[in-house]
Amino acid sequence: MRYISTRGQAPALNFEDVLLAGLATDGGLYVPENLPRFTQEEIASWAGLPYHELAFRVMRPFVTGSIPDADFKQILEQTYATGADGVFAHNAVAPLRQLNGNEWVLELFHGPTLAFKDFALQLLGRLLDYVLAKRNERVVIMGATSGDTGSAAIEGCKACENVDIFIMHPHQRVSEVQRRQMTTIFGENIHNIAIEGNFDDCQEMVKASFADQGFLKGTRLVAVNSINWARIMAQIVYYFHAALQLGGPARSVAFSVPTGNFGDIFAGYLARNMGLPISQLIVATNRNDILHRFMSGNQYVKGDLYPTLSPSMDIMVSSNFERLLFDLHGRNGAAIAELMANFKQGGGFSVEQDRWTEARKLFDSLAVSDEQTSETIAQVLAESGELLDPHTAIGVRAARECRRSLAVPMVILGTAHPVKFPEAVEKAGVANELELPAHLADLFERDERCTVLANDLLTVQAFVANHGNRGKPL
Ligand SMILES: *Cc1c(COP(=O)(O)O)cnc(C)c1O
């Protein structure tokens, strides 16, 4: 499989190089040159497969030519292992739970960090280590996090022999659960940095480091945010997994997806284009609603950033949206380069009417306020006894308001465990003893390891250079 850039000017790469690449050299994002397409018979024959075997069938075409089948199978078996020594705490890996008649939550929070990002980052860490061992290479990962990505990336890379990971979070500005999920994981290749600044400061330093990598003395820098193709690829699998349990592919399924960066929902769009009958995809956002403004009114314009009860979707710009725009424009890289240049100059944009109409055949959207989020958490708990996290609650709200057909099963992606967001649960006014799952039961007693650094690029880069080789200088 070859991968091309959404802006048309960067060289095509194979899977292995895309895994290590991050942004394309022309500023675009990598997408498969040709999407694999499965027949209905083929998809139907996967019913009942264990998660890792389904994952193999769905993802195999994407890694062909880079990873032999036997190796890929083994990696997937380890990634999606369940049971006592497993990675995922539920035997079904991603269980479906019924809320109402024909309304389901796909629970994606049974991984080590209790959010759906584990599905992709557990795989990404293993793939990186596999590819790097083969090439006899080491890399450094730098990432910025306001919450869930950092812990999932650290958990995903903690066993990597060939990766040193540096995760920056804004000092004293992430929740205690989220901080402890990062700082209590020890390893000579794991480095937590608390920056005396905000999330944007952290992200700017990551961006600046990618733009000028001289401080790494030749070591490659790798991205773990959702622009990395491998993350999107891993997320396609659970759409198949859910649909197969609800009568697919003989029957269509609809999905409602809490989203910020358009990563998770883009994976659903790909699943449909690969042959899975999906009749509707709902973009569920919080008050940071750039995607909703596009879907409802064909305006893609940067707004202000509002902190909300669903912090993992607090974004101003949706990085993966460019991948959808590329398809909407007939995969014309030059057109996307022009749109994005306009956008960067602060202009924002609309797309031509027929392109927008095309998108609306599949996508609907809703922006959900904090008040509505709290209301939905309380409502669903009263109705069905399920305590939702605020992100999932947004998905449920949007599913109920935007649903096109009651005859089509509606699956809401349950992106996080409610225990990660006690503030939102408290605001919903529901009395509930939130208990950490067994593997995190002693989280608040564990020692923490973290370095506080000034909000200064050179200081951070010097720290990375001095610790980037399993804690030793590069
Ligand atoms: C990251 C995250 C999201 C948003 O994911 P996208 O890739 O932006 O769609 C939603 N919910 C939770 C809990 C998350 O951690």
Please supply descriptive tags for the structure shown above.
474 residues, alpha/beta, Rossmann fold, 2 domains, 6-stranded mixed sheet, 5-stranded parallel sheet, 18 helices, 15% strand, binds pyridoxal-5'-phosphate, pyridoxal phosphate, threonine biosynthesis, Thr_synth_N, Threonine synthase
Structure, explained:
By secondary structure, the chain is of the alpha/beta class. The protein has 2 domains: 96-110 and 229-427, Rossmann fold, CATH 3.40.50.1100; 114-225 and 442-474, Rossmann fold (3-Layer(aba) Sandwich), CATH 3.40.50.1100. The two termini are 33 Å apart. 50% of the residues are buried. Helix 3 crosses helix 4 (69-79), helix 3 (51-63) crosses helix 9 and helix 9 (229-245) crosses helix 10 (263-273). The chain has helices at residues 15-21, 40-44, 51-63, 69-79, 117-135, 148-157, 176-183, 199-211, 229-245, 263-273, 290-297, 321-328, 333-344, 353-362, 370-384, 390-402, 422-427, 457-467; strands at 2-5, 13-14, 30-32, 96-100, 103-107, 139-144, 163-170, 190-195, 220-222, 253-258, 278-285, 363-367, 410-414, 451-453. Strand 1 (2-5) and strand 2 (13-14) form a beta hairpin. Bound molecules: pyridoxal-5'-phosphate (PLP). Pyridoxal-5'-phosphate binds at residues 115, 117, 148, 226, 258-265, 312-313, 391, 415-416.
Short description:
It contains 18 helices and 14 strands. With 474 residues, the chain is an alpha/beta fold.
